[in-house]
Amino acid sequence: MKFKRIIVIVMDSVGAGDAPDAAAFGDAGADTVGHIDARVPLRVPNLRRLGWGNIAHIHREPTEVIGSYGLMEEQSAGKDTTSGHWEFMGNIVETPFPTFPHAFPPDLLQAFTEKTGYGYIGNEIASGTEIIERLGPDHFRTGLPIIYTSADSVFQIAAHNDVIPLDELYRICEITRKEVCVGPYEVGRIIARPFIGTQGHFIRTGDRRDYSRLPKKKMVFSYLSESGRFVAGVGKIGDIYAHIGLTESYHTGDNPADMKALTEQLLAHRDREGLLMANFVDFDSQYGHRRNVEGYAACIEAFDNMLGHFLPLVQPDELLMITADHGNDPTWKGTDHTRERVPLVVYSPALTEAVDLGIRKTYADLGQTIMDNFSLGQLPSGTGFLSELR
After folding, report:
1. Is 85 annotated as a binding residue?
2. pLDDT tens across 156-195, in order?
3. Are 235 and 252 in contact (CB under 8 A)?
4. Mean per-residue pLDDT for 319-348?
5. How far is residue 205 from each of residues 160, 197, 249, measured CA to CA in Å?
6. Which of 40, 54, 73, 213 is such that its CA lies 20 to 30 A from the CA of 184?
C-alpha cells in the first residue's frame, strides 16, 4: 500500500528509554516518558490508541490499539536536534558537531566582534532563561548581545527587542553562521533568542530562529521536491534543514501554533502528493531543559488532546508517523538532552492491523519508508517498513 501524502510529527525530546549506547553519553538509565509517568501518571488516550502503551514505560490502561508501533535507535554521533532530524532523512552524522564545555575560545569571539561589529557579554554555558535575567541589566546598559552555549553544539545570541531590534538580531546570527562559526567552529546551530519584558519578568518570545549548518549529503526532502512533490515544513523544520529541499515553510512559536499550521497545511494539500513535517518544540525548550516534570507531563497531555482533534482529519490516502528526535529526561542530572530510543507510531485509516515494528536500528528507517512510498530509491542508510504495515 502506498499513500498520496505522508505526515511526520516530531515530538521534540520525547524519548522512550535509554539507548544501547547511552552509557557513552552519560545517560544509562534515562527515560523521558517513563520517568515522567512515574511522577505524573500520563493521561494520553490518543497516543495509547496509536500504540504508546506498547513501547513507552507508562502505566497500563486497557486500550484498543489502532496504530502500528516501534522504537528507533540513533546511529549519529550526537543527541541533538540537528543530528536526529538529519538522520530521519538519511544523513547519519558520523563526526560530532563541536561543543564548548568551557565556553567559546577568544579567537572565535574576536571573529564574532570583527564580523558583526558588536562586542558581547556572557560567554557562558547557561540556561537561557537564567542568563537573560542575570545579565539583562548589563545588556540594557551596554547594548551588547548576550552570548552563551550549552551542552549542545550551539552558539546562542540573546537580545531584548528594545535593545537590538529583531531584524538586527537575525542579521547578527546570519553573519555568525556564514562567517564566524566556520571550520573547526562550525556548530550545529546558531540560535537567535529574542526576549521582551522588564527585569524580573523577561520572557523569551516565539520569534526564535535556528540557523543550521549546511548538510553535506542529499536528504529525502531534495529527492521529493526534485520529483515534483511538495515538501512543507512546520515549526523549526525549515531552520533545521537549512531550508534545503523544502517547497514551503511555516515558522511557528509553540505547540498550539504548530498544530494549527499543520492542520491548515494538511487541508491545503489534499490534491497534491508529498510530505508534511512538523517539529513540536515545547516539550524540549519549555520543560525538558528546565527539568520541569509536571510541566512536561501537562505538555504531553495537551498535545494528546490536540492529536484527538487531528486524527479524524487523516484520510485513507495519508500516512501519519509520530516520533521524537532524542530524549530530554526532566528527572535527569544537568540540563542536557539524553541519549534514548525514541517512540514511533504509524497510523492511517486504510490500515486494519496494529503491527509491532520492533526496534529500528536507525532513525533513517523513517526516511527510507518515505522514499519507498514515492518510489525514489534507496538511501545510504535505512530499511523501510512500508511493506510491514497492514
Report:
1. no
2. 999 999 999 999 999 999 999 999 999 999 999 999 999 9
3. yes
4. 97
5. 10, 10, 19
6. 73
Tell me the C-alpha to C-alpha distance, in Å, between residue 173 and each of 147, 201, 215, 368: 11, 25, 18, 33
Contact between residue 282 and residue 254 where contact means Cβ atoms under 8 Å apart: yes
| Under 8 Å between Cβ of 123 and 105 | no
239 marked as part of a ligand binding site: no
| Amino acid (one-letter) located at 200 | G
Q: Which residues pair with 7 in a beta bridge?
A: 276, 320
Q: Is 21 annotated among the ligand-binding residues?
A: no
In this prediction the pTM is 0.91
- Check the annotation: does 254 bind a ligand: no
Rg (CA), the chain: 20
- At 198, list the grid cell: 522588564
Residue 289 in marked binding region: yes
Domain annotation for the chain: domains and CATH numbers: 5-97+215-388 (3.40.720.10), 106-212 (3.30.70.1250)
DSSP letter string over 187-202? -SEEEEEEEES-TT--
